[in-house]
Amino acid sequence: MKENTLKLFCIFLFFCTSLNAQRETANWFFGVNAGLDFNSGTPVILDNGQVNTLEGCSTISDANGALLFYTDGVTVWNRVHGIMSNGTDLIGSQTSTQSSIIIPNPGNPNIYYIFTTDVVDAYSANPNQSNGFNYSIVDISLAGGLGAVTTKNINLLSSTSEKVSASLSSDGNYWVVTHRNNQFFSFKVTAAGVDTNPVTSNVLPNISDYRNIRGSMKISPNGRKLAIAHTLFEPVQAGSLYLYDFDSATGLVSNSEFLENDLMFYGVEFSSNSSKLYASGKLFSGATANMQLQQYDVNATDVPSTKYIVHNYLQAQVISSLAGSLQLGMDKRIYHSLPGNKLSTINTANLAGADCNFDFQSVDLGFSSARFGLPASVQSYYESIATIENFCFGDATSFTVTSDNTIISIDWNFGDPASGSNNTSTLISPTHTFSSSGSYTVTINVAFSNAPSQLFTEVVVIQETPSINSLFILEQCDVDDNDSDGLSIFNLQEAITIIEEDNGSADINISFYESMNDAQMNENSLTNFIYANTVNSQVLYARVFSYIDCFAIAQIRLQVNSGTNLGVYDTIDVCEVNGTGISITQVEDTLENDFPGATIGVYNTRNDALLQDNQLSDASPININIDGELFFRVSYGTECGFIGSIMVNIVAQPEIGDQQAFLCGNEGATVLLSFEETYASYLWSTNATTSSIEVAETGVYTVIISNTAGCEKEIAFVVAEEPSLTIDRIEVQDFQDVNAINIIVVEENNPESIFSYSINGGTTFSESNEFVNVYPGVYDIVVKRGECNAASETILVGGFPKFFTPNGDSYNDTWQLLQKEYYPNAIIELYDRYGKNLNYIKANSEWDGTYKGVPLPSGDYWYKLVLENGRVITGNVTLKR
């Protein structure tokens, strides 16, 4: 069985230092308002963070795990998430890989230093000038304990890189290290403050182009190694990973060791016992390229040869332009940050190869999200001194201490006062049986013969072993026509549901195995929950756990019921629904008549019916095969009763859509709602069952109609008030041999409206809107829509008599413009057939057929009428003697 081990973190503290539990890294704030609280031993979501950073950030808590403040390298937020007094305009950057790191003053618990790094973007305007490496000072005692930035942006280097890491020095102070070109700069922080004269180390390689200063740098928790990732963009995308020796006494970096250049490396981190190095990187093909996590054994003679690929991130898993940061947490897991609302973890990072236990997107951030960075801290806070084994409640948890220094004495406090006198021990490597499950803070005070005394602390989480029954039975229908073989297909997800209900919790993990030995050894687990048994009553073994080593094993008996395959059971007519599918409810209702008291499920395929997967409903996509076959499952409780299929004959619905009607505004008006076609039945929303109803109010009236096959469809009649009627225009063709009137009505609300037309004031109506051979005169136009809402307009049709007879008999003795009173300013010009002008007369006067008093002979004469609006009309008139 794979054994998971955890290492205790040590913090080098001297006698002058308080012996409280060391929880400076208990709170994280990063990404887009993301936060985690590690005080319980496992990360708990914090949703009140204010930081919004693309990459670097840093958080510091006090020795008891209470938040003090956090920063993105530009802004500082206090413990109540307000901007700290004077806490703006630091010259770090939210887009720097490691924008900032917070270091305490080792001699004054109120003073902290925020170191901020350079950023590629700062060089863009002027490659010879950047923000450089700076620090600012925070006094946490100010502003009522919320703290204030007292001094800002003290410059240490005019130019550096986006890299910074920190470690305890061998004399109890701190080293803060950054990098530029081929140099490492180590600044010492003591009780006197920051020594502005760095220890400089010259080592390969030389990263001279400012566009290549991205990537992380970390010192190992034991202060002996340093790793650096170079993310290279110029002249082409590339990357490199290097390992160095670090001297915590002198701050010197030496012995450059090239590890790899096959990725655009970005994140680096050591395991808590400093034995393993992890690095993240991308392939060289843009933002959609695959990413990779690599592991190296730092203690090996040939470190590059120990490379192990922990995980390949495929494009389908995550798309990211950078490979994301790696950071140890207080729980000894290494966290990997990529854009999204979950972090991935390396759960047992001290172990080699697959035993490091990578867990993809295992930590939820709630409604917040990560980006590329995680909070930087003093790496020494994570150093391990002991191996802890056995975390199951009831087992003795063992603590095995290994140290390069000689231990004179050791005092253990297991943080378990309920255990009485067993809560403490002075053994080098003791065991302790915890009194209950839960989280415990274990502290160890160690006195060395050749080093200062030190305090070590660890949060140990004791897990319950699940309590479950030893046997569960999964019943399944027979898969084929051979009732005697006892073979079928099982969905083991059903077993998970049953076990979770039995345990009373869904917060457990379940794996399945074909043998008891495999289940106990956690080997050869089934990777597919769809399982085909080999014999009837075959037994599988379920390993049930919340923590991998605290498990119970249950037997899962796979029972196949014979005689349960009904084959093709029936053929039924099923009504189509809204032209898109069929009613599964109708199918279920039909089957329930034959299997009373059973649970009926309908499926697209036989396997779906067997596995109770993708059950169809009226809202489901239904894929009836070419034969019109659907499959069903009949269940009685958890027992599989029958599996069969039905042939479906789809019957179409009535083919009619929603209707519209209009109600006249007249008092007492009604409108008839009816259909042109006849249906088998009607059920109106008024409860009427007639083929039509008469209504007197506007609104929506629904009616369920059915055809002779019983297929129903609901139709809505929308009854609206009859809209007002407007005549768009009247086209008059007058002064013609044959005059005409054309009446135009445009109906936008209901283009199907039926109109009737009258030109005599509504005395008679025509369904045609065109009237021809209209005698000149005044006409009253009326248009009706149905029996209500009429519109009217008066028009004039102009014209002349076609002849006149000036013979003194008092009939047609003169020629004049008809309705001449409507043309008071019109002028008429008269001509003979040779074009000779005979006369000018006003339109309101008459012509007696003479020219200068002399009667003209019979014949045709031409006229030109000029109307007041400029219209010119020409024609002829016949004079008869």
UniProtKB/TrEMBL annotation:
Q: Which InterPro entries match?
A: Ig-like_fold, PKD_dom, PKD_dom_sf, T9SS_type_B
The UniProt record lists the PKD domain at 398-447
* Taxonomy, superkingdom: Bacteria
Is the Transmembrane helix keyword given for this protein? no
Q: Where is the signal peptide?
A: 1-21
Q: Keywords of this protein's UniProt record, alphabetized? A: Signal
This protein's name: T9SS type B sorting domain-containing protein
This chain's source organism reads Kordia aestuariivivens
